[in-house]
Amino acid sequence: xxxxxxxxxxxxxxxxxxxxxxxxxxxxxxxxxxxxxxxxxxxxxxxxxxxxxxxxxxxxxxxxxxxxxxxxxxxxxxxxxxxxxxxxxxxxxxxxxxxxxxxxxxxxxxxxxxxxxxxxxxxxxxxxxxxxxxxxxxxxxxxxxxxxxxxxxxxxxxxxxxxxxxxxxxxxxxxxxxxxxxxxxxxxxxxxxxxxxxxxxxxxxxxxxxxxxxxxxxxxxxxxxxxx
Length: 228
What we know:
The chain is an all-beta fold. Helices cover 0% and strands 54% of the residues. It contains no helices and 19 strands.
């Protein structure tokens, strides 16, 4: 007599909370953004048994699993959470994927697409409305006036740069040198004008920005005063 064909092993019924998984925008050089996705077992009778693989990009991927990866066994009408981080490696859209396999007879494997956008820091000043000009006005020869301005990071990522020294009659007295501004923070810079001659004295103060901060060319401030 012919050997009877064994009955198929019953399996669960898989569903994912979303695919592709879209991560919140993440700033370069700051805390990664977090995203959860759910694996649901819609079967009322059978467990869903399977595995959550690692991102295809491996150690070079901007996406990583912090919990819920590997083998799983989900009871009927239940779910499990997979928690992930997005740590951008550059500015712009980044993509990867991972494979979820299970004993679902209809969908034994699902490619989960991962997407996230890396954002830079963006530097501006409180003098932007005044063409980034610090106006000292008329200052008597032999005296000095100190004014200040603020550098602000209005971007999502960190921004690094440098405030250079100035030569007489202008001097950076506070806030000079390299800086690193997390998102939403600012720093004060003080500049002193001590004219040694009469007449208008105009000097540029170029604030350089390290990539991938914006603006890529940095910010050029103008120091403007008149010795009398």
